[in-house]
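Help! Submission page says 'invalid entity' but I think these are all valid:
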Amino acid sequence: MATGTKDHTIQGRPDKDADPTGGAPRRRSMPAGRVLVAILVGLLVWSLLYAPELKRASEAQPDGIRKTVSLAVLRPIVWVEDRAGLTRLVDNAASAMGRHPGEPVGGGVEGISTDVEPLPSLPPPTGAHPDRPRTHDTRLRDGSSTNPLRVVVVGDSLAQGIGTFAERVFRPNLVNVFREGQISTGLSREDYFDWPARMRYIVHRARPDLTIVMLGENDGQSLVDPNGNTVAQIGTSDFPSAYTDRAREFATIASSEGGHVIWVGLPQPRDTRRWDFITRQNAAFAQVAAELPNVSYFDTWSTFAAPNGGYTAYYREGKHVTLVRADDGVHFNADGYTILMRLIAGFAGQQFQLDPRTYEG
Amino acid sequence: MLFPTTDFAIFFCLVFLGHWWLNHNARLWKFFMIGASYVFYGWWNWRYVFLLAAVSLITQIAAIAVSHQQQPRRRMMVMGLGVAATIAPLVYFKYYGFFTVNVTNAATSLGLSFAPPLLQVVLPVGVSFYTFMAISYVVDIYRGDFELAGWTDLFLYLSFFPHLVAGPIVRPNELIPQLDIRRDPRHIDVVGASWLILGGLFKKVVIANYLAAAIVDPVFGDPARHSSPEAILGIVAYAVQIYCDFSGYTDIAIGVAKLLGFRFPQNFDRPYSARSVQEFWRRWHMTLSRWLRDYLYIPLGGNRRGTVRTYINLMITMLLGGLWHGAAWHFVAWGGLHGLYLAAGHWKQSRRDAGTLAEPPDTVLVHWLQRLATFTLVCIAWTLFRADSVATALTLLGRTVTAWGEPSPLITVPVVLAIGVGLATQFLPHRPAERLKAALSQLRPVPLGISIAVVLFVISTLGPRGVAPFIYFQF
């Protein structure tokens, strides 16, 4: 094998791949300097064309140097493009291709198209969870094949996970599952995705009997309102109460039309540096659930903790061991979501007397 | 670092500049490219670079030990130890959890007490690919097919960023000699490279990502809630998705390498136009297929030890090929099913060779029927591959026949169009594309750059927001 530098080239002749049919026209090659010019022009023109969208995406990022630098570069470009009318032109082109340039980056308020009757009024449950009597709760109605129970799963990527497996755990003939999880969303950034508005819309359109909420994983950032104004800076003394208020507002909306809510707490992440913040988030969720009727808190943290209270990727049912956590140390894998969803369904049975026939135990 | 990101665009411009600037100085250039490749890899997790360096170190030590042994038995033994040492990190990182859970539960069911530590071992991206390249290097040296490379050559061979995370699996004799040849900066096939990169982006961002969200994920997420037409189309959509995702990645990798003056082997050649499963494997993930053939199937004896042994070798090869893709039983089942397909194909061919089975008529209609049959078999196997368990796959396959007459809201015009475009790429003629490329190559840099920008804008706008990772990154 050759080890020294040879003074011949591997590109000084026409590209063999360019002519697989034997008679196709040859391509002209280009020197490296010109190639770099073509690449830079390509990236520059693309970033000009795509600047409004890039700016929106940057605004949705968590605070940090990346966001600051991106916006410092993009804002003047978009300002010039706005004045020149280019933004409207590009947005029109994007609209023609199916994109909705005006909507929040995380997604707009549309989707569920099920107009349904209001939920019936039901008596309180006859037996409540032994740990926490909920005399102010009502019982979940029984689903039937003609009027299935309506279950909505909302939240972030964790909710997307349980949403998928909720469809498997709940019996299709007795329960309709609506998967409304939105990746990378949370309660902090209403300018990115406005969960209260979305939940209002869901309640109005679908009247869920049971809403399963799992979010908060992306909330380690300042609270921002839908107009982009900061409501509470993360790390300040205002933050905990403002965050609890947001959770309360959300749960109130979710349960506003007689629906029931299971607020699924966040599990332990592998990264122990985040434990303190998540513990406080879970405390806020539990507090809200304790305050509001028909809202209950499911403790994922303890359920999936190791015997010593630490993080483990495995779950034991008796002596059977299952790997339940994904490689990222945050999410669950398919087995994990299935187990979590079964536990949530069982918990709904304890708390709101969910009919055991509606789910796989 | 993912290819379709601004991070990579900036990284590549800097590397392109440094690469051609240092082109005349082979030694400096190699250090620069190793450094750039390690930055590319460390972008995911800086700790991974130590694993890559460790695998490179182990590989070169094993290769040196093999090359110094002249006595055949010892040489073979050293090679075996070297391969075992090279593959050990992959086995640990990829299969520890799988092994732990299955062994613990098997022991429990037998009434035994066996409790290995329940560690969660995170799989570093790309480790399956560069481990296979490392093995081929050690084995090629053992076989005398390749001479011992220098340390920098070996480190660069394994880490070279265009192939690092998801292939193609490049052989030593395909890449290492190129490291020592001075590339010609005057002749870069920029249109050929851009065609591959933009085509790969289109396949990934527009087709694969769209199909995943629109039909594949819902259908595979809960098969029991979907009608037969949705189940069938969901499976076909996955076949298109995985092709567009993986071949899209490979096209980008080959295009990026081309801009740097390197040739990578072809990895896909219109696999869904295959008329048999054997032919499918000659067209799908070609660099893995030939790796399995040359470093597993043939060393096992190939087809040289009788019919039964041939079938056994095929099954072992495909089962291990399945396990290479992931530490789960549904991947093993996928490999096993392909092993059965190949064994059946081999049996049929041997009957034809013996004259006991007639050759099919050589007509266009028969060819299309063969393509359809092959595609159906491949799709059945993809169901096992994509589903999260064998049970889910069987449920979905069952739904393809038991749920006719139910509503099918997921079957929409865009979904059918995306599947149609994805499948059409298998049958498009070469010549018009070559003519277009030749015409584009006449453009000067600025108009060419603007053309690239417009195509990029269309791709960015048509694709869903955000960057979905490539499917093969998890393997």
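Support: the input was valid. A stray whitespace character was the problem, and the output above is from the cleaned input. The CA atoms of residues 220 and 277 of chain A lie 8 Å apart.
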